[in-house]
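ok, trying the design again with the full structure, not the truncated one.
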């Protein structure tokens, strides 16, 4: 079997200018980064939409992730290619990969087999520099805070209540908690702080939820960075570096245009994780895709309980979006993990019984999609080790529960392998869809919002708040931030907040440790279980498999 790198190398992508012309973009609206990628000017959103058909937004989500892999991004790409093969006007809207997972456990995030976006090596590494720009803008504000503390501290910032941490785009557990300002009076004010990964940066979230540069400016200005000694909030605008941050972000705010192996246009822009952030690509890129094409296929990170919930309750509510359909990716391999297999060797051993036992996880995610008022479509992402008996178990369950389903072989066959999925999608959309129903209203009390997601989407018994979380709640209400939506940081490996509980856990509580204010992004970050916003590298990181061979990056994914 050929590797993803070898398959990608067998394709000669079209010049990005041709891909742009296919979307109706002009040369003046394009900012090329070489031959195979480009930034697209925000002015595109200001001109009238050229398409006569009403734009349709499709969300691709998945069952709870496992070590077996689900292939959500690969399925999104394959579905987009299939719609193109059927003659539809289509554009994808995906997230940018982070170097942390790329060098850590997960590897690259540009699809696989014959459903990849190109140039995969560039996209998975530095791409157009968006992550670096976000990292620099975030850390400029961090430096400005410590500089203000050093030079007289006119804002009377309490060094023990600075909440704006630093970020870097790499998994580095040693930096989770640090002390800065050591070395004497000339080195700054000593205080405890730490690093998050760039994907969890509030600047990342602000860029992904902003709808214009001016919106981004306002979001940065109102970001809560510290409290003064009287307990009053200090916002970023008081540090007078918003303009400089925007200067660093002026190119990063423009979506990146690339293509699939079959020439389908793709906007890849923004990369917040769904377990520790809101898990969606930028609103600007999504709306630009909808502005230029009839079908926009996008994804939200990890399982439906994380990315899809935040897509609906945060992104759609904030930006006025409403998907016409939700595709749920499932694999026989992953269902076997949820059904109780323990070792990697067992993944390749046929076991319809274990697939059947794992269907409880798929069932919960199907329920969750219906909870939002949407009809789920199950995409069975086929692996070459799957048996017909295992696949039939999934099909039979879908038929019994009146859930549209399609087997998709896009990894091996590209767009042609996902034609059946595309046809099922079109059929469901033609039947019509109800407006999206959020899990909660933003105006509800914070605890009620958390409880609604935990009980209705995760299946929890109740929510338990630590003393620190209760103290956070008091500050949030006192300062008027209680009307913000919630972004729950939770393990991606379980519907619960315990990563060891597979399948469909029951009789569990969700423990809330902290509730952090992201005033610029416009949501409250609810920290549950043992989740951390700076991942660590595994014992054998993916970076040990990577190399540069004859000018080609190998071993990414």
């Amino acid at each position: 079997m050929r590797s993803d790198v070898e398959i990608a190398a067998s394709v000669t992508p079209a010049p990005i200018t041709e891909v742009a012309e296919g979307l109706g973009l002009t040369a003046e609206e394009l900012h090329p980064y070489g031959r195979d990628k480009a930034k697209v000017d925000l002015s595109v959103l200001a001109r009238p939409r050229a398409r006569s058909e009403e734009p349709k937004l499709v969300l691709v989500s998945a069952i709870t992730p496992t070590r077996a892999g689900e292939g959500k991004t690969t399925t999104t790409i394959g579905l987009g290619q299939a719609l193109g093969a059927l003659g539809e006007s289509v554009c994808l809207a995906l997230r940018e990969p982070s170097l942390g997972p790329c060098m850590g456990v997960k590897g690259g995030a540009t699809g696989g087999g014959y459903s990849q976006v190109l140039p995969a090596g560039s996209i998975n590494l530095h791409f157009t520099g968006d992550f670096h720009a976000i990292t620099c803008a975030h850390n400029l504000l961090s430096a400005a805070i410590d500089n203000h503390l050093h030079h007289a501290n006119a804002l009377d910032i309490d060094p023990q209540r600075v909440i704006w941490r630093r970020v870097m785009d790499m998994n580095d557990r040693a930096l989770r908690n640090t002390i800065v300002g050591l070395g004497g009076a000339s080195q700054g004010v000593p205080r405890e702080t730490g690093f998050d990964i760039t994907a969890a940066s509030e600047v990342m979230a602000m860029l992904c939820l902003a709808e214009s540069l001016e919106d981004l400016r306002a979001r940065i200005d109102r970001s809560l960075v510290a409290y003064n000694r009287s307990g009053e909030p200090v916002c970023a605008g008081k540090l007078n570096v918003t303009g400089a941050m925007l200067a660093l972000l002026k190119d990063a705010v423009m979506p990146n245009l690339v293509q699939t192996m079959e020439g389908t246009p793709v906007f890849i822009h923004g990369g917040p994780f769904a377990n520790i952030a809101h898990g969606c690509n930028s609103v600007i890129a999504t709306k630009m895709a909808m502005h230029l094409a009839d079908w926009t296929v996008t994804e939200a990170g990890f399982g439906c309980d994380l990315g899809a919930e935040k897509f609906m309750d945060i992104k759609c509510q904030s930006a006025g979006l409403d998907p016409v359909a939700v595709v749920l990716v499932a694999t026989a391999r992953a269902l076997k993990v949820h059904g109780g297999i323990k070792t990697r060797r067992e993944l390749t051993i046929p076991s319809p019984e274990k697939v059947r036992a794992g269907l409880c996880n798929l069932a919960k995610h199907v329920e969750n999609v219906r909870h939002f008022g949407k009809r789920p479509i199950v995409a069975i992402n086929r692996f070459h080790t799957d048996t017909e008996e295992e696949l039939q178990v999934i099909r039979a369950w879908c038929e019994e529960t009146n859930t549209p389903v399609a087997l998709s072989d896009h990894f091996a066959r590209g767009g042609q392998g996902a034609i059946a999925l595309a046809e099922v999608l079109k059929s469901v959309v033609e039947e019509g869809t109800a407006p999206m129903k959020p899990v909660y209203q933003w105006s509800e009390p914070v605890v009620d919002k958390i409880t609604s997601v935990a009980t209705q989407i995760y299946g929890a018994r109740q929510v338990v708040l630590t003393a620190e979380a209760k103290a956070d709640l008091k500050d949030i209400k006192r300062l008027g931030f209680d009307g913000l939506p919630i972004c729950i940081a939770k393990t991606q490996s379980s519907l619960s907040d315990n990563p060891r509980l597979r399948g469909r856990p029951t009789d569990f509580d969700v423990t809330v440790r902290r509730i952090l204010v992201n005033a610029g992004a416009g949501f409250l970050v609810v920290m549950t279980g043992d989740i951390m916003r700076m991942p660590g590298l595994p014992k054998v990181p993916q970076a040990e498999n990577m190399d540069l061979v004859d000018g080609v990056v190998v071993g990414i994914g």
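Keeping the full-length input from now on. The longest strand covers residues 509-518.
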